[in-house]
Amino acid sequence: MTEAINAIEMHSIVKRFPGVVANDHVDFACQVGEVHALLGENGAGKSTLMNVLAGMYRPEAGEILVSGKRVVLHSPQEAIAHGIGMVHQHFMLVPPHSVAENIVLGLNQPRFLLNLSHIEEQVAALSEQYGLSVNPRAKIWELSVGEQQRVEVLKMLYRGAKVLILDEPTAVLTPQEVEVLFHTLRDMTKRGHSIVFISHKLDEVVAIADRVTVLRRGKVTAANVPAKGTTKAQLAQLMVGREVLFQVDKKKAQPGDVVLAVEGLCADNDRSLPALRNVSLQVRAGEIVGVAGVAGNGQRELAEALTGLRRPTAGKMTLGKIALDRHTQWLKLGQQLAHIPEDRAVFGSVAELSVAENLILKRFYRPPISSGWSINASAVRQNADRLVVQYQIATPTIETPVRMLSGGNLQKVILARETSERPYLMVAVHPTRGLDIGATESVHKLLIEQRDADTGILLISEDLDELLSLSDRLIVLYEGQIAGEMPAEGADIHTIGLMMAGAKADA
Ligand SMILES: Nc1ncnc2c1ncn2[C@@H]1O[C@H](COP(=O)(O)OP(=O)(O)OP(=O)(O)O)[C@@H](O)[C@H]1O
Ligand SMILES: [Mg+2]
Q1: Which domains are assigned to the chain?
Q2: How many whole angstroms from 49 Cα to the centroid of ligand 1?
Q3: Ion ligand 2: protein residues whose beta carbon lies under 5 Å
Q4: pLDDT in tens, 234-272
Q5: Is residue 373 packed enough to be buried (19+ CB in 10 Å), middle (13-18) or exposed (0-12)?
């Protein structure tokens, strides 16, 4: 084999944040024409390293070489000028603008010099060339998450990215969209692009990567491992430093009384179109009911209706003996109703507040946290100290703002707050999205423990493996209706897939 050319090299990169060394003398190299997977647990330093490469962060030490030449990158614009582009986990698109407008936004050209129809043609050509189908004239808000991601990739290609960094690109995609993305990535490598691929989904890594580099607590623990012939278990071992069971240990459920009864529920989505049509379901104490479905088939609206974030247009919901309607004081339901929201940064936590403060968000008004007029500071500390140990939350201190925690640890803060009071019902939405395998394992354990402590759990997830291994019963949502229901044990993944695509249970 001839020696492959290095597209980029990073030597001995050091990047610190208050209280942590996010990158501790990290070496990393990506060759021309390869997909290089960057793996590591939550907080290992993957995004930080790639933000350094993409010109977002300046490292305290170390150097970057592009095609063998040393470069200093002060901004993302300088990085892209050297052919390095990054697609972040949170997209940076402007919703009211069109695809083409977003693609040229931020390019340093006066607006009047931009010929929009010419740009639209160029974008259409690029999207044709790379199989990234999207209408250049569509507004961003009209697009699905998968399409928005294509716009981000196109934006980078338009600017001439040779090295494309994708930070957890598949976390928000359906299995079908993942296939399409992988096709595009393979195509890009054939054209001489290099891809840095960050993911927690080891099946995908085995499927798409040529080589793998692993970070653990800011340091490289394995570099340039060929992906071919490597198993998921070996990768997991490299990441976590111990064996990982890809299986959930659980006893048979002992369902009790009905804790949630939903009858004829209807609700609209954000565009005022019907999203839930006459949905009826029950959840009993001590069971996990999984809701399967392709994103956009009413799962979000169901979770929002149940947690008071969206007003139904028809139907009845009962939690234990409490009717959930517009007279419900949702805040006061905190003890009976737990919610693990889809967007943990927006609804699940308050970024600027500390770990200790986030842990009391649901009970600051009750003793022992509240003492009449004021908050009892020592009770707040005791509560946080206890939960940080019990839920193994990795944080520098309990005073640290939660925006500094890694994704997995932020999720543990929310779980600790929501489960420490034995609610009747828990609505868990994508509870392990973006979490590493270790954190996923502990969230799964926590959910099973919660079930065994008699909470009824409604689990909404797009990860079929997760649904099948955790749930006792499964419901499939399609276009806002229940397309089928079955026990999870022995459920056939193929049948579920068909129902998710609209086939009726009896077909
Ligand atoms: N802007 C920031 N301010 C302070 N600390 C930060 C910041 N960004 C990251 N960190 C810290 O640096 C460390 C590495 O974080 P980073 O986001 O790079 O991890 P990651 O490997 O991408 O994790 P994940 O899989 O959860 O995305 C973590 O301890 C994190 O808390
Ligand atoms: Mg990250």
Answers
A1: 6-240 (3.40.50.300), 247-336+423-507 (3.40.50.300), 349-418 (no CATH)
A2: 10
A3: 47
A4: 998 888 887 776 677 889 999 999 999 999 999 998 888
A5: exposed
